[in-house]
Design a protein that fits this description.
The structure is a homodimer of 505-residue chains. Chain A is of the alpha/beta class and 505 residues long. Chain A contains 21 helices and ten strands. The first copy, chain A, has helices spanning 23-45, 63-73, 89-92, 98-101, 119-125, 128-136, 138-151, 165-177, 187-194, 196-209, 225-245, 259-263, 279-302, 319-327, 354-357, 379-382, 388-407, 421-433, 443-450, 452-466, 481-504; strands at 50-57, 79-83, 110-114, 154-162, 217-221, 307-313, 335-339, 366-370, 411-418, 473-477. In chain A, strands 2-3-1-4-5 form a five-stranded parallel beta sheet, with helices on both faces. A five-stranded parallel beta sheet of chain A has the order 7-8-6-9-10, sandwiched between helices. The first copy, chain A, is elongated. The relative contact order of chain A is 0.12. At the A-B interface, helix 1, helix 2, helix 13, helix 14 and strand 7 of A face helix 1, helix 2, helix 13, helix 14 and strand 7 of B.
C-alpha cells in the first residue's frame, strides 16, 4: 500500500486546531470565497476535466450541512450531489462499482459524493479480522479506480470532517436538549457515539490505506462551524484552480512486457480455419445447441445469474449472423443487443468505459455487445484515435472492469471471430451483389483491409493481455460460418452450465 | 370512444386469409423488401420523426420470431427493442407510464415494443366487470398518450398477430411433439390456450377501444409464417414511408376556452404582497416548520410516498433561497434538486416532457424542480420558442403528466413565487453590489423585465388551466422573502400531512 508508508502516525491528531472566527470576519471571507469559487467553476467548465468531492467524516461533524453549503456557494447547474444510501434494486443488481460510475461528473463539472466510497469500507473495518483482507483487495480496487479516473482528467478531492469524542458528545447533547432541534440527533447517532473509538480506529485505517500521493485525504477539524465551512471552501477552491491549470502529475507511459514475447503468442495463427460443417449436420447441431442454450438461459435467470456476451471480429467475419443464432435461443424478454459505434457527444463527456457500464445486465438478464470496450485497443489503437499511453493502460483498465463483472457472478464470454483475408475479400464481393447487403460495404472496409497486419498485431496483443481463466477469449474459426455458429453456441452453453452448477453446489 | 364507433364487427374475422407463398417467391420478395426497408430507415434517420412498432398478438403467433426478424432486416443501430416484462424495482417505483417514456425512440429512430401497452390491459379485460372501468379511464389515458406523441412526430404502428384457436392448438402440438423444439411450447402457453375464447374476447375489446383513426391497429393473420413475415415487413415499410413524407394529419389548433374568462381570473393580483415576517418571529417559525417538515419527510419515506416540489417564479423572486430552506429540512440522502435550463442535444431528441420523467423520485424520495415543465407555457410561449399550437396543447399534456404522478400517490406541490416589478428592480440592483451574486444578473434579465405584461398573461393562464384540487398552485407572496419561505414550508407540511394520514387510514 503506497499510501500507508510513512503515514503511521495518528492522522487525526495532526489536524489544525480550530480557530474561532468572528461573524464579521467570517462574512467578509465568505464573500471573497464565493466570488472565487464561482470564477473557478466557470473556468473548470471550459476544460475537459472534472472533479469529485467526497465529503466523509464523523457523525455530527456536519457532512450534510457542508454539502448544503457547497450547493449554495456554487452554481448548482454545474453540480450534482449523490448519496449511496439505501440504493434501489437497479443498483444492487449490478456490479459494485456501478453506483460510482453512474455518479461520475461529466467533463467540466463537479459531483459531490456523500460519504463516497468509504462508508461501507469503514463499517467492515471495525472488525479487526476483516481489516487485512480489505486492505489487500478492496483497497487496491479503489486505488486502481481513482488512478484510472485521474488519468482521464477526473480529480478526486477527499475531505474528512473530524470531530473529537467529547466534541461529538457535546454536539449531540446540545441538539437533544434544544426542543426545536432535537430531531436532528437520531438514536443511530448516539449508538455510533458509543462506538466512537472503534469507528475512529477503523476510519483511520481506511484513510491511511487510501491516502494516495496523487489523491490524498484532506482532514479538517469540524468542531468550529464557520472555520469548517471556510476550510472546505478553500480546499475546494485550491483543488479547482489546480485542476483548471491541469498540471497532470505522474502520467507515465504504462510499462508493458516487451512485445517480443508476444510474437511467440500468435493466437490467430493457431486457429484451424479449414473446419467446416455441412448442411444436415449443421441443422441438427444448431437445433440441439439452441435448445440447450435456451434451457440454460432460463436456469441462469432463475438463479439471478447475469450474462455478458462480447462479439469482436474482422469485418465480414459473420458477427451479425452469429449473434442472430444466439438470440434465436434466448427468450426475447431476457436479452438486449448493444451495437457499439463511435461514441456520442454525451458519451465523450466521460471515461471511455462509462458507456459500457450503463447497459450491463440486471440479475438473470443477458447483454450482447456487438463490438465492445475492446475497440480501445483495436480500432482506436490502429487508427490512432487513442494516444499510445491511453491504449496501453487500457489493458489493465479492461481487466479491472471485467473483474468487477466476474466478482458479481456474471457469465462472461468473449469471441473473436477469425477469418482469412482471402475469405474476407470473397465475402465483400458477395455483399456487393445483394441489394440489401450493399450498404454494409463502405470505403472504410477497403481501407481497413490494407491495415490487416497492424490489426493482427493489435488482436494478438489484446488476447495475450486480457485472456485469463475466468475471462477467457474464444477465437472462433470463422471461414465456415456454420462451424463458427456452433462453436459459439457450444462455448456459451459450457460457460452457463458451469455457472449454473456452481450456483447449485 | 372514438375508435370504437363503427367497429362493432369481429376484428379478427375480417383478417385476410393466409396465402401460402413458395420459398422461391418468398426469397425474392424478401430481397426487395429488405432493400426498401433499409432505404426507408436511412430516410427516416434524416427526419425529426420516430416510429414505435408494437408487436402484440396471440401466444404462438410468433411475436418473438417477428421481432428477431425485424432486427435482422433493419440496421440494428437505429433500433431498440423493449419488453415490459418482469421489470425492475426502479420501474415499479415510478408512475405507470414511466416504462414507456424510457422506451421512446429518439428522433430518426425506431423502437420495437414487445406486447406494447396492451398486455396488462387485455389480462385485466378478461373479467367482464373491470372492462367498462378500463374503457372509461385507462383507455383514454392511452389515447391521450399516443396523440401527444403523434403530434410530436412519433408515429405508432400497432400490429396484432392473429391465430385462430385450432391453428394455435396445432402449432403448440407440433412444437410439443418435436423432440428438438418442445422447449418452445411452455406450460403457460397451454394454459392460455385453454382460455383462448376469453382472451380473444378481451383482446378484441382492447383493440377496438384503441383503434384510433390516427393510430389504427393492423391485424395480420399469423398462421402462415412466410406470409406473416412479408406482411409485417410491408406494413412497416408503408408506415416508414408515410412517416418520412411527414403528412401530419389532423394537427388542429387546440381549442381553448376564450381568454376573456381568464381576465377575470387574475390570480396574481389577488396576492397580498405586503405580508411580512420580522426577524425573531421568522426565526422561530423557520425552526418550527423545518422540524415538522423533517419529521413528515421521514414519515413519507417510511410509507414509500414520493414527493415532487415545483418552484417557479419571477427572476429574483427568491426561488433559490427558498429551496435552501426546504432542503435544510430534508435529510440529504432523500432529495435531489433538478435545475432546469435549456434542453441538451440529447433531450431535444424527445418530446419536451421526456427530460422531466427521468428524474422523478423513487418511493419515499423527493425531487425538487428549480423551474420545470411549466417553462413550455411560460418562457417558451413568451419568447416564441414554442409554436402557438405547441404551448396551447401543453396544458392538457401537463395535466395528464401530473395525473400520472398523482395516481401513483406522489405528493405534488407547485409554487409560483410572486413579486412586484419594483421589488424585482430593487433586488437586481442589490445583486450588482455583491461580487458573488453579480453573475446572476444577465442582459436577459433586463430584457425579461420589459416583457412583464406578456409573462403576467402567461402566468395567469397557466394557473387557470393547470390548477386543480389534487394539483393546486400556491401563489407565494414573495416581496418579503422570510414570509415566502414560511408560506412554502407550511404548504409542504400540509400536503405531506394529508398524504401520510391518508396512507394510515
Amino acid at each position: 500500500m503506497k499510501g500507508a508508508t510513512g503515514q503511521q502516525e495518528d492522522m487525526f491528531r495532526s489536524v489544525t486546531p480550530p480557530k474561532k472566527i468572528g461573524s464579521k470576519a467570517y462574512e467578509q471571507q465568505v464573500i471573497d470565497l464565493r466570488a472565487d469559487l464561482l470564477k473557478a467553476q466557470i473556468d473548470l467548465g471550459k476544460t475537459p476535466r472534472s472533479i469529485i468531492v467526497t465529503i466523509a467524516g464523523v457523525d455530527g461533524a456536519g457532512k450534510g450541512e457542508v454539502i448544503q453549503l457547497l450547493n449554495e456557494w456554487l452554481d448548482p447547474r454545474g453540480l450534482e450531489t449523490h448519496s449511496f444510501w439505501n440504493l434501489e434494486n437497479e443498483v444492487s443488481q449490478r456490479p459494485y462499482q456501478w453506483r460510482y460510475w453512474r455518479a461520475l461528473p461529466p467533463r467540466g463539472r463537479l459531483s459531490i459524493w456523500f460519504g463516497g466510497m468509504y462508508t461501507n469500507a469503514i463499517a467492515s473495518c471495525t472488525q479487526q479480522e476483516s481489516r487485512s483482507k480489505w486492505s489487500q483487495s478492496k483497497c487496491k480496487e479503489i486505488q486502481a479506480f481513482e488512478e484510472m479516473l485521474r488519468l482521464d482528467g477526473t480529480i478526486h478531492l477527499k475531505i474528512w470532517l473530524h470531530l473529537g469524542k467529547s466534541e461529538q458528545r457535546k454536539r449531540l447533547k446540545d441538539l437533544t436538549e434544544n426542543p426545536k432541534l432535537h430531531w436532528r440527533a437520531t438514536r443511530e447517532d448516539w449508538k455510533h457515539h458509543n462506538l466512537y473509538d472503534t469507528y475512529s480506529d477503523a476510519a483511520q485505517h481506511v484513510l491511511k490505506c487510501t491516502h494516495f500521493p496523487a489523491a490524498p485525504w484532506t482532514v479538517l477539524d469540524a468542531s468550529e462551524k464557520s472555520q469548517r465551512d471556510i476550510s472546505v471552501g478553500k480546499a475546494l477552491l485550491a483543488c479547482m484552480e489546480r485542476t483548471v491549470k491541469g498540471r497532470r502529475v505522474g502520467i507515465l507511459q504504462p510499462t508493458l512486457e516487451p512485445s517480443k514475447k508476444l510474437q511467440h503468442n500468435n493466437q490467430l495463427d493457431t486457429v484451424d480455419l479449414s473446419q467446416r460443417l455441412s448442411g444436415k449436420a449443421y441443422q441438427n447441431s444448431l437445433l440441439e445447441w439452441q435448445a440447450r442454450c435456451h434451457r440454460l438461459f432460463w436456469e441462469a435467470y432463475d438463479r439471478s445469474i447475469p450474462t455478458v456476451l462480447v462479439f469482436e471480429g474482422w469485418d465480414a467475419a459473420g458477427k451479425g449472423s452469429a449473434i442472430k443464432r444466439v438470440t434465436g435461443a434466448i427468450d426475447a424478454r431476457l436479452y438486449r443487443i448493444v451495437c457499439v459505434g463511435a461514441p456520442t457527444d454525451e458519451e465523450n463527456q466521460f471515461h471511455y468505459l462509462w458507456r459500457f457500464w450503463k447497459p450491463l445486465p440486471a440479475a438473470g438478464r443477458v447483454t450482447i455487445f456487438d463490438r465492445s470496450w475492446y475497440g480501445r485497443v483495436l480500432v482506436e489503437r490502429v487508427e490512432k484515435f487513442a494516444k499510445p499511453e491511453e491504449w496501453k493502460r487500457a489493458y489493465e483498465e479492461i481487466n479491472a472492469f471485467e473483474k468487477q463483472l466476474l466478482s458479481q457472478g456474471t457469465v462472461l464470454c468473449k469471441f473473436w471471430i477469425h477469418i482469412s483475408p482471402e475469405k474476407q475479400m470473397e465475402r465483400f464481393q458477395k455483399r456487393l451483389e445483394v441489394p440489401y447487403k450493399r450498404h454494409k460495404i463502405t470505403d472504410e472496409d477497403w481501407r481497413n483491409r490494407e491495415k490487416w497486419p497492424a490489426y493482427e498485431e493489435a488482436i494478438n496483443e489484446m488476447i495475450h493481455r486480457t485472456d485469463s481463466p475466468s475471462a477467457p477469449w474464444t477465437v472462433v474459426a470463422g471461414n465456415n460460418k456454420k462451424f463458427a455458429r456452433i462453436q459459439i453456441l457450444k462455448t456459451i452453453c459450457g460457460s452457463l452450465k458451469k455457472a449454473v452448477e456452481h450456483h447449485k453446489g
